[in-house]
Sequence to fold (430 residues):
Amino acid sequence: MENYDAVVKLIVEALQANLTTDKKDIAEEIPVGISNRHIHLSQADLNQLFGEGYQLTKIKELSQPGQYACKEMVTVCGPNGAIEKVRVLGPVRNKTQVEILEGDCYKLGVTTLTKLSGDLQGTRGITIIGSKGSVQTTEGLIVAQRHIHMTTEDAKHFGVYDGQVVSIQINSLRGGIYNNVVIRANDTSALECHIDTEEANAMKVDSLTKIKLIK
Amino acid sequence: MENYDAVVKLIVEALQANLTTDKKDIAEEIPVGISNRHIHLSQADLNQLFGEGYQLTKIKELSQPGQYACKEMVTVCGPNGAIEKVRVLGPVRNKTQVEILEGDCYKLGVTTLTKLSGDLQGTRGITIIGSKGSVQTTEGLIVAQRHIHMTTEDAKHFGVYDGQVVSIQINSLRGGIYNNVVIRANDTSALECHIDTEEANAMKVDSLTKIKLIK
Fold:
């Protein structure tokens, strides 16, 4: 028992590191959605990849109203390599957008910008392969910036506004704080914080983890 | 220019989120080492995998004195899948230890504990395939807990002790704070914070990024 004090000290420190939000209001916790790499297609690119007039096949509703995962998958190809089985999300959008992980950049041999979905200015394109053809896009390859979807009502509740940059705190075994999380508030959103699989793995977050918003 | 105030507010917030350590003492910054999945082998397992009396082939010195990357690679196999080209690090150790990424667990079909290197109690084994044979280990599969190597002199400088749990702050575009980082102080270490590739990617850290220790 000669190490008793040292052990107690270590345990207290570990608890302090993990439980700094012990006093948090449970109502402030936000569910988390974890995104793997995926693609949103324009109808023109969908036609090119899967055939003229092709319609996406919904297989699963996503948490954001109107959004869904599709049966269709594509291959994304860069100068150094390809990533197969990249899931298409529906419905079709005005512009094609490919959302990859930071780690995918090495495999593809590209550098990307960290951008909010829909903000494609300055981004590069990539080659996409479907069952009937391929497309070389001129923009739209991004690593998604982490963000929190919410209604304007939620935004009032949390005291934040659409576009505000906040932080999130995660109290897991590998927990911590992510900065530069953007609030996306409108009247068609469900409350959910979106991070990608690398961000989730780095803090050992799963679909049951709740996060806390920090202003 | 009607959005001028809103734009200024957004920029100020983004800067505040990123630059909260503007006043940091530059001498407090710590270099970062990013680890991909890798394996340390016992001589018995090395013999089984590559042939009796096999000696590792050093190809690159690592930052920690006496540690090196080897030419040899193995395949790691779990119930759901295999990961090829896992780099062997030398020299041989008393016990074989396989350090994978959290994301590898899904591919292999296993769950692991987040552990400090060398602390294998309670961990599970895995199948390892070499050029001359395979080994089914009974323990040693871990996701490495992030840690900071330093000398006891460094520890005095930072006001920390071996085994202490601290946090690290990263000021990148996707920056934030990781909690539960363990100090590993002894007289044969070089000052370096070790995180894995998912942790690096999640905060857009590269080998030039400096991190700040937070107690």
